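idk why but the lab printer keeps eating my pages so im just putting this in chat instead. protein + manganese (II) ion:
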Amino acid sequence: MDITRRTILTAGAATAAAAIFPRPHVARAALPLTQPKLPFAEADLAPVISAKTVGLHYGKHHKAYYDKLNTLAAGTPYADMELTDIVTQSAKSKDAADVKIFNNAAQAWNHVAYWDQFVPGGPNRPTGDLAASVDETFGGYDGFIKRAVDVSDTVFGTGWVWLTRGDDDRFALIGYEDGKNPVAVGRPAYLGIDIWEHAYYVDYENRKAEHIRAVLDKLVNWRVVEERLKS
Ligand code: MN
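predcted complex ->
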């Protein structure tokens, strides 16, 4: 089964709505889950992210999460679920086997969201209500970038910085370790910045902040974020 872009775009909203309108569980043979194709050529994000990094990141790291997930989920109740449901269901368990499934499912999900949110030939910027919310919350786009870098420093090792909503329902940038994501904790996932070293080390060595600034300044497709806000 192919995980479409729409599946990812609607995932946050579906999770948020689940408490009010529980979705029927449609059992079906979902495995093997298929890694979606990149929405651009490997070289298209250069020089912000090189073709070599995209090739490794998508072709080795992201692929490995799918491969491991397909192996681990075989013969388990997760085998009949779509990717988003595997993430949210496995997130509820502390069992070691479920944690392994969660780690790989979340990373499979995270990277689909990641590739989908970039546009070659940027930059572009939030507009309209989204721009107003970014300005109100972060004091402008520069403030948004600065806050993202600050939040990245709260994650000691591997992890992600996500644009989501806080308990007050306002925009919030939150850092999570490893593969944990907002969807796993019932929050929307509008934008995710991968801060694992594999995301930047080939191009930026230890200059993580420089990488984050460049990605947010030059690659984010805010039209995709707008779609995620509406879904
Ligand atoms: Mn990654």
